[in-house]
Amino acid sequence: MATAISSLVSIALVFLFSFVFATSADNHENFIQCLTSHSMNATSISQVIYTPNNSSYTSVLEFSLQNPRFLTPDTPKPLVIITPLYESHIQVAIKCGRNHGLQIRIRSGGHDYEGLSYVSHVPFFILDLINIRSISVDVENSTAWVQSGATLGELYYRIAEKSKTLAFPAGICSTVGVGGYFSGGGYGMLHRKFGLAADNVIDARVIDGNGRILDRESMGEDLFWAIRGGSGGSFGVVIAWKINLVQVPSIVTLFRVPRTLEQNATMLVHRWQYIADKIDNNLLISVILNTVNSSEEGNRTVQATFRTLFLGKTDELLSLMQKNFPELGLVKEDCIEMSWIESTLFVYGFPNGSSLDVLLDRTPPSRAAFKGKSDYVKEPISEIGLEGLWRRFFEEEGAGGRLIFFPYGGKMNEIPEAETPFPHRAGNIFHISYAVTILEEGVEASNRYIDWIRRLYSYMAPYVSKSPREAYANYRDLDIGQNNDKGKTSYAQASVWGVKYFKNNFDRLVQVKTMVDPGNYFRHEQSIPPVSPWWKKRGN
After folding, report:
1. DSSP 8-state assignment for residue 259
2. How far is the CA of 123 from the CAs of 36, 83, 108, 211, 226, in angstroms?
3. What strand order describes the sheet that includes 401-407?
4. Residue of 457, 475, 491, 501 with catalytic role
5. Phi, psi (rounded to 5 degrees) for 473
6. pLDDT of 295 above 50
7. Which residues contact 491 (CB under 8 A, 6 or more apart)?
8. I want to staple 108 with a disulfide (CB 3.0 to 4.6 A). Which of 31, 147, 179, 285 is the partner?
9. 71-83 burial, b if ≥16 CB within 10 A, otherwise e?
10. Helix/strand/coil for 432
11. Alpha carbon of 514 to those of 135, 510, 520, 521, 529: distances in Å?
12. What's the rounded Cα separation, in Å, for the pair 406 and 277?
């Protein structure tokens, strides 16, 4: 009897999967037919459609896939990839995706920590914005228009082509796509002076679920507010951003000073916490933590690297450091002066003397599978707490670990929490970026490294923000909660992760979502859900 039941179940599953496959295949064919029949130029759109039968499909999929953890045979693949050349291609893709039940995943640079810009567990297509990447710099008005498929490196390069004293406050990694980065807020080496990238966005062009192209005036202030920090993939396709550029000196000063535990790293990191958010706004000192080989052969030690950008010259920096952080023992030989655009290479870690052309390379120097997480710190971590952290680094998987303590304060304290969806403002000393590189092959090894970073995250709970334990939306982390793959996600379920990223701003994001995309076409595992008032009230 049991054997018969088992056989029936097996047969039922075969029919089920065959039905799902056939339905997906039908959707896929109908979707492509829809794209070509509704495009003003069927020839042009056919040139940017890639299916698994296309010889270029794999290379297009993998080119902007920045986390090999999601490059496995078991990882779901898109039925179609579209690399639009024109806004009209995007409009048609949205229309056809909705009509034929294919979920859209929007990719600008492919750096989503959980792969949500190119992975889904329901039938989907990727809208890859790699060709939507023009940049127009207006030096006279200190503004620029940048399309979402451009990278930060490309943006920096084009600004520097026009001016040596204009810059933009954005991130360190030059291959990150503008679209996803701006959508989540976007911090970097200039944010203590000028705020986040999203704080410096003054207009945008969005294609909504009905295919309309909207600017700030036509979309309204609610949607314009939501796209500047409310995370991507929830409200539409942002195709371009108008940004304010900022004035920087012609010469800036940097240093990168490493200290190991044997060189009093514990005391220095502890002391750093008391000055990092309070020093001159022109100065940002971050701390990178990882393990290195110690002087004793075969042993590892923890190293803290103090990495700095100062908007000024060496003598002034030395004076500020002597006044605020003499314990580091900074000397003139540690410092290097250069232009702001050259500093973007130095901070990212390119070798000295590298050509600025490396900023135009969309391929990072290396790609490694990793898992990331984030935290915010409001009170200094004790030396005992830091020593417990070091012990985690000495575990086997800790060899792949890397933490960055990134200071706040300055301009970040002046902007109200509700000014944009990004709420992590005054009261935060620093942000923690956790990452573990998976140094071994295989699923079992991958799980061990991921378990290590989860244990580390649990250890840090007493030392970081609480109620909620805050997190940074651009460092996507499905461990903190996620939506349903299929069907509706309640306000209560989404708020589990939503308040961690957005705090009280989550409610307004839900209201905007309900207004602009009530059918929830733009969705993923951590997209903002639409809800009706009665549903929100009951929490069902």
Report:
1. E
2. 20, 18, 20, 21, 27
3. 335-338, 252-260, 300-310, 283-293, 401-407, 430-437, 370-377
4. 475
5. -60, -30
6. yes
7. 510, 529, 531, 535, 536, 539
8. 179
9. beeeeeebbbbbb
10. strand
11. 32, 6, 8, 11, 7
12. 9
Instruction: List, for residues 236-261, the tens digit of each pLDDT value.
Output: 999 999 999 999 999 999 999 999 99
Burial class (CB in 10 A: 0-12, 13-18, 19+), 230: buried
Residue 447: DSSP 8-state: H
Q: Mapping DSSP to helix (H, G, I), strand (E, B) and coil, where does residue 76 land?
A: coil
The residues that bridge with 395 in the sheet, in sequence order, are none
459 closest CA partner among 527, 398, 528? 398
Task: For residue 335, list its beta bridge partners.
Answer: 255
Distance between CA atoms of residues 1 and 209, nearest Å: 52
Give the Cα-Cα-Cα angle 533, 539, 540 (nearest 5 degrees).
100
Do 516 and 235 meet the contact criterion of CB atoms below 8 Å apart? Answer: yes
Structure confidence at residue 540 (pLDDT) = 39
Contact 199, 168 (CB under 8 A): no
Percent pLDDT > 70 in the chain is: 93
**Token representation of residue 500:** 């961690």
Q: What is the CA radius of gyration of the chain?
A: 24
Q: What is the mean pLDDT of residues 29-47?
A: 86
Nearest to 121 by CA among 63, 155, 74, 53: 74
475 is annotated as an active-site residue: yes
| Range 21-36 average pLDDT | 75
pTM flag (> 0.90):
yes
Mean pLDDT, residues 421-425 taken together: 98
Amino acid at 384: I
- Tell me the per-residue pLDDT of 102-150, one tens digit each, with 9 for 90 and over: 999 999 999 999 999 999 999 999 999 999 999 999 999 999 999 999 9
Does position 535 have pLDDT exceeding 50, yes or no? no
Gap between the Cα atoms of 99 and 211, Å rounded: 12
